[in-house]
What we know:
Elements: H1 21-40, H2 48-98, H3 116-121, H4 123-171
Helix pairs in contact: 1-2, 2-4
Amino acid sequence: MGTHSRHSTLPVVPAAEWLPRSLIQERRVVWSLREDLVLNRQEAPEGSIPSLMEQEIAFRTAYEGYVRKVLETAKARLDKCEAEREPAEEAAKVKLRAAGFLDPIEGQRIPAAYSWRMVRRHPIVRAVLQKQNDLRFFIEKRRAARVANLRWFVELTSKLRRLRSSASVLAV
């Protein structure tokens, strides 16, 4: 997330469903001001374009803080999962040994009684694998959201360029 365009220093703003309510309201105000300026095509009132830009900058600054918090939360969650992974795996190994499973010795065949299927069916092993899968899903979900945000950002940038080009005409 954050800034992705070499032409703009403003952060990427995703679709409304990704934002908290306060930012959605700010976003609506900015978009309604934009629409008033673009759709009316009348002479812009004195100070309306700078106030629109100030409101847009304030909105994007608030959004950037929101994104920073989301990313910090995600990073903290990843760090926590990573910290929990090793003790969980070690606990799983201890419980497997207590249940009669043998540690494989390098170079020796594992007896058929301790096949990989049997090990994977163990509830502790399943729990560790489930946690890893949840973490993978969380990361993939964030990547998908980022791709969607980038597409939306390209669309928003083109609209903003059109607005800026028509704003000079409206101000005259």
